[in-house]
């Protein structure tokens, strides 16, 4: 097993993790789950697969080393952004 996987396994098995309380959004999500007939918009868990053209645009961007942060508005002619929009 690779070293990183071993390290992550040790962390996951640590008793210290049991001491960390769930985040506020997780606690809120649990409460929302208890309400019947509510459209849940809390955690953004998609129930559909990412379209192929968006996955390919992400792969192309990574292969072209185009994986750096941009301004909040994004960049013009950005392949992944164009595929999503």
Automatic annotation (TrEMBL):
InterPro entries: PyrdxlP-dep_Trfase, PyrdxlP-dep_Trfase_small. SUPFAM superfamilies: PLP-dependent transferases. This is Uncharacterized protein. It comes from Xylocopilactobacillus apis. The lineage of its organism: Bacteria, Bacillati, Bacillota, Bacilli, Lactobacillales.
């Amino acid at each position: 097993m690779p070293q990183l996987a071993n390290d992550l396994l040790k962390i996951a098995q640590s008793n210290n993790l049991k001491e960390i309380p769930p985040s506020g959004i997780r606690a809120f999500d649990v409460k929302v789950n208890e309400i019947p007939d509510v459209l849940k918009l809390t955690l953004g868990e998609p129930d559909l697969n990412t379209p192929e053209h968006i996955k390919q645009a992400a792969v192309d961007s990574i292969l072209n080393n185009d994986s750096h942060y941009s301004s909040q508005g994004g960049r013009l002619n950005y392949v992944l952004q164009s595929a999503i929009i």
